[in-house]
Amino acid sequence: MLRFMPVGDSQTIGSAGEHTWRYRLWQHLCTTYGGPFTLVGPREELYDKATDAATSHAYADPDFPRAHLAGWGEGWLHMAPLVGQAVRDHRPDVLLVALGLIDLGFYTNAEQTAENVRAFVTEARAARPRIRMVFLPVIPNIRAVADPAFAEQVDLFNVLLAKEVADLDEPRSPILLASPPEDYDLHTDTYDGTHPNASGEHRIAAAFAAAMTEAWGIGGTYSATRV
Fold first, then answer.
1. Which residues pair with 170 in a beta bridge?
2. Model pTM?
3. From the CB of residue 138, how many other CB atoms can be counted at a distance below 10 Å?
4. Which domains, ranges and CATH numbers included, belong to the chain?
5. Are strands 175-177 and 2-8 parallel, antiparallel or unpaired?
6. 137-160, pLDDT tens digit by residue?
7. Would you say 128 and 92 are in contact if contact means Cβ atoms under 8 Å apart?
8. In angstroms, rounded to a whole number, what is the distance separating the alpha carbons of residues 161 and 2?
């Protein structure tokens, strides 16, 4: 069975009542992938805005494998120390990683964030030497529109992330850099300029699906990108 572990921040964990991009990708693979697969990870909760904590299990689909390694307000800085144990415990074959916005917004600059990417990869491979990874660059967000200095940091980090992927990629443990969702629109693909709505969830899922399909033949053409 192919085992995927979604890793991310608030865009990945999602809030109570949301489907999340990980659910959209699971739906897609259910119809396009010819073998058994599941999602794994040490956490299952959604973020609950009422309690300001990851305490919700209000998923709309009871059959959805909810496991993940994602947290509201967590970034590469937080996940690098956690990923090794998570990989050892849950044995994912593929890490699907969407991180960076929180790091750049609150914790580290672009260069420091890139260092944490390298630490993340080192820890993941120490736990499972043949693990595969797919990284999503930081996607458009409202802060980058309103804050030119932050936008420069996002652009720089995305360049550095591409360099890290090129440098760290190796045949036994390949790393893919997904293309950012094409024409991602803050007005139609998010509900607040940062967090994806249903349309944005589909478009993020499609970015991961396209990368895996092109490189590894996993899945196929993603049929829904806007709703």
1. 173
2. 0.97
3. 24
4. 2-216 (3.40.50.1110)
5. unpaired
6. 999 999 999 999 999 999 999 999
7. yes
8. 26
